[in-house]
TrEMBL record:
Family: Belongs to the universal stress protein A family.
Gene3D superfamilies: 3.40.50.12370
All copies of domain UspA, residue ranges: 2-143
Record-linked Pfam families: Usp
Protein name, as recorded: Nucleotide-binding universal stress protein, UspA family
Gene source species: Mucilaginibacter gossypii
């Protein structure tokens, strides 16, 4: 069975991701895990026994609080309650805790809320940005102000370097929920443009799924993310899909973050990011 992992720190901002994950798990008939990563420091004078007892009490109290927190979310949404697993993981680094659990438990997707960040936080990375940059499991970023909707239409923004293989992953996500798929390529001046009807017929045949094509031109007055945002306004998707490079040197990542990472800071629709294949 497919496994969907959603993270929470019990904040108001994390509610959006939990609501989305509940809806997605229900639509895909997937197993839902709600994960909380924590870290406790052992006081120097405490014995191992005293710290173990404190940890046990902390985990029990936190589990009770999380259960009430999730019950409150269910109370606010019109969704049938589904079975879920509540997991607490101890790790000094939140992102390491999330990625390690997701990898060891063969999770299909990681859901996390995002609320944007200032300049300094963008450079050094939020939890969301770090997940996008390092997770081998696809990450779904949910804006904290997002209002729950049906997943009906998916927009895949392609750089055309590996679109045939990438489309297979997009369709694999869309097919179980019956969502439509639209591929957008934002072409540079003088770049070859696809014949829309021919390309759509070819894509549909190769994927056994209806795929529409949106051809747009780069606006030299905009950066690429602004052009992607323009495509979102035209397409009005329920979800945007981007593939992100993770093999670049660290300094390049710090000063030239991926489009997916940058978009996660201000996008208004859920963003699904996949890791690009090496060499693409």
């Amino acid at each position: 069975m497919e496994k969907i992992l959603v993270t929470t720190d019990q904040s108001v901002n994390s509610k959006a991701a939990i609501r989305f994950a509940i809806k997605l798990a229900s639509q895909r008939k997937a197993q839902l895990t709600i994960l909380h990563v924590y870290h406790l420091l052992k006081p120097f004078k405490w014995t191992d026994h005293a710290f173990a007892a404190y940890t046990t009490e902390f985990r029990k109290k936190t589990t009770d609080e999380l259960s009430s927190f999730i019950a409150g979310i269910y109370h606010d949404i019109d969704e049938r309650e589904i079975n879920y697993e509540l997991v607490l993981v101890s790790n000094i680094d939140v992102v390491d805790g999330i990625t390690d659990y997701a990898s060891r438990n063969s999770c299909s997707y990681i859901c996390i809320s995002t609320r944007g960040a200032g300049t300094i936080a963008k450079i050094f990375g939020t939890h969301t940005a770090k997940l996008i940059s390092c997770s081998t499991v696809p990450v779904i970023c949910i804006p904290s102000a997002y209002h729950l909707k049906e997943l009906k239409h998916i927009l895949y923004a392609s750089d055309m370097t590996d679109y045939e293989n990438e489309l297979k992953e997009v369709v694999d996500f869309a097919r179980p929920i019956g969502a439509s798929v639209e591929m957008v390529h934002i072409a540079y001046p003088n770049e070859f443009a696809f014949d829309k009807e021919l390309a759509e017929a070819t894509l549909q045949k190769k994927n056994s799924y209806k795929i529409s094509l949106l051809n747009l031109q780069r606006d030299v007055n905009n950066n690429l993310l602004e052009d992607i945002d323009h495509a979102v306004k035209i397409s009005k998707p329920s979800l945007l899909v981007l593939f992100t490079h993770q093999s670049r040197p660290m300094l390049e990542k710090l000063f030239f973050p991926s489009n997916a990472t940058e978009y996660s800071f201000y996008g208004k629709v859920p963003l699904l990011t996949f890791k690009k294949k090496d060499g693409k």
